[in-house]
Each structure stands twice: as structure tokens, then as C-alpha cells.
Amino acid sequence: MTQKLASFLVGLFGGLSGSLFGKYLVVFILSMIPILELRGGLIAASLLDLPMWQSFLICFIGNIIPIPFILWLINPIFRKMRNWKYLGKVVKWCENKANSKKEQIENLKYLGLFLFVGIPLPGTGAWTGCLIAALLNMDKKKSLIAAFLGVILAGIIMLIFSYGVLGRIF
Question: DSSP label at 1?
């Protein structure tokens, strides 16, 4: 699903992808979007024939930018949004999504957060992991480090698949 969505969005941003800067901008933006994150960014970078290590760095930066905002600001933002009719429904949906996955992090704490962010499975990633950490009132600095390390792990795993590193080794 991530690959199809990344391919669609690369096509949508087709005008930007005419220049090298535009291609990196597309990859950076995709890496900031929930659901896609670094995984989608690396797939897009591969589709755009961008160099592997520069793409990893751009995707990593794009994926980690939202993390501190989620950890430090999501609870106060959610408190304010609950007072609005439609925004309250969005908050409820986000909280339900986070609560359905929180046991994966709750038992192992920061190791769980690291693995949740780092193992690229559907429904996991930095956005959801940090939302869960914030809702569980986990230490923000430790959560930040666990999420950053998780993004690195996810990046390494996605490099192997999106750039065919396994195919080059064997």
C-alpha cells in the first residue's frame, strides 16, 4: 500500500520532479506525511532514481521534524480540538488508533517505541509511535531518542528493500 501511495504522490508532484531539487523536495515532503513517512520517501526516491545515501538523509530529516511537535504539543492541541464538533471526532479517531496499538509500546516502554517506529509494518511509524508515547505520558526526551533511533532502523530496512541492496549482495 505504501508503494502504491508513494507512486501516486510522485505522479501528483510530477511538475516538481523535473529538477534534482524538485525531486528531493518531493521525497522530503513525502517523508513528513503520516502513514508514508520515511518509508514512502525512500520508495519515492528509488522511483525517482535519486542516490541512496542522500535520499536516506533527506527522508530521515523529513521524518524526524514532526516528532518533537507530536511529543510536546499533541496533548494540548487535542485538549483544544475536543471542544469543536468535527475536530473532536478527529481527536477521538486518533486516540482510538493509538489506543489500539499502545500495548505494543506500553509493555516494553522505550524499547517498544524504538521497535514500533523502526519495524516498517502497516500502522507503525514515528507519527503513531510518538502519539502513543504522548498519550501514555512517557518521558519526552527518552521517547525522542527512541523514535529517532527507530527512524534510523526503519530507514536501514527500507533501504534494503527500496534500493534492492539485497539483490546487489546476492
Answer: -
Question: Within the chain, where are the H helices?
Answer: 2-12, 20-32, 37-47, 52-64, 66-81, 85-101, 103-106, 110-118, 126-135, 140-162, 165-169
In angstroms, the CA 114 to CA 143 distance is 8
Residue 80: C-alpha distances to residues 45, 83, 87, 90, 99 (Å): 37, 6, 9, 12, 20
Query: What pLDDT shows up at residue 4?
Result: 67
29 grid coordinates: 515532503
CA-closest candidate to residue 157, choices 67, 58, 42, 66:
42
Global confidence as pTM: 0.84
- Cell triple for residue 34? 503520516
Phi (first) and psi of residue 136, to 5 degrees: -85, 0
Spatial separation of the C-alpha atoms in residues 90 and 164, rounded to whole Å: 38
Residue 166 pLDDT: 55
pLDDT of residue 59: 96
pLDDT at residue 17, as a whole number? 61
